[in-house]
Amino acid sequence: MSSPAALSTPSDCVAQREQAYQAQVQRDLPRNFLANLAHGMLGLTGFRLMHAPTFVPAYIFLLSESKVAVGLALGAQFIGMALSSIWSATLIEHREQVMKVVYSVGWLMRLQIFCLALSAFMLSGNAALVFACIFLALFGFFGGMQGVAFNFLMSKVIPTNQRGKLIGMRNFLGGLIASGVAYLGGEYLVGTNAFGNGYGSTFMLAFILTSIGISALTFVREPKSLTVRKKSSGFLQRISDIPGLLKADQDYRRFFYARALGALGTVAVPFYVLYAGQYVSLSGATLGYFSLAFLLSQTISNLLWGKIADARGYRLVFLLSMGLWGLATLLLIWGASLAVFIVAFCGLGAGFGGYQVASNNFVLEFGKSHELPMLIAVSDTASHLMMAIGPLLGGIIATYFGYHIIFWLALLVKMLSLLMVWRLQEPRNRRALAV
User: Fold this and answer.
1) Each residue's pLDDT tens digit, 246-257
2) How many Cβ atoms are within 10 Å of 96's Cβ, its own excluded?
3) How far apart are alpha carbons 116 and 133 in whole angstroms?
């Protein structure tokens, strides 16, 4: 007969499984760290070209000569992201492993960049504008799915105290490449109208870089989740669970509102370059300078944001970056020369980059592992909805009231977002108190 000490209790089994899980995470950490770093160096480089407030807004404005159309095209992208985020959570929250979903959706996302490039080469005028909006919407749709699945994968394979380092290095190295590519894209591809269409050439380059980068993710070793949710009976059922998620955690609820307000602050982002164009000529070289300033500052600052995140948490990153973003917006409002605008774009890039780092990773520190897909998806959906409304609202305001009103509106919501995060407790401190 076995002695009591030899018997295994359910809590012992859970502890053993948790220990084995953490041992696998630590064993595979060097491999997974390098795979994610390689993906960021090349995969995210192309996405930065697509998300920089220069090439896509300038291309849409070239086709339409309409500020509202710029807002509509950018809004279509984020509407796509908002529509797919929660659906993505329902596809992965019952799975022990999500790598196949990440890889499949990643390729579908990249396909839209390829199609956007082809449409730029093959179409013109209204036809090019319509298809650009369609492909940007699909790019956003699959991007929303990718964001939820990839962030959940990140939470599994990279420990909390290593994520800031990875994100900082990934964004720094990838951003250096993106900055150089953006400058060359503006100077030589757009500036010389390379291959008959400089914007089409830039989008095709973005597709090539992101396609090379995603191959690195095949080297990721993902552990099986310790707990998963039972497969949901339907999408609408999970939608009905959202109010309960928000009520259950006051700090998560504050983060949810703060991130949504911060996202609404992007109302001005597509119009940075168009505003500057009132004072300086938007030549290919000028677009290159602005893109370089925005992306290079975003790149360099990410090393600092990563260090702060690992040492003090993402709450502080959110507060500092939101403050910097606001100050840079003020400088843009007061600027009237190329030199001042370049400095403003540096501040905008660093602040916006810190906001993205914080908003995308702060959420990973709330809730339990099996709750994360939906927590990520809910905050993503609110953020994307605001980023969809923002450009369209900005386009209407710019058309009838001018750019200054947009920038002051953006400043107001950024400050409200900052105050909301100021009031919430650092999740890492809360977790330490619970131990």
Assistant:
1) 888 888 889 889
2) 11
3) 9
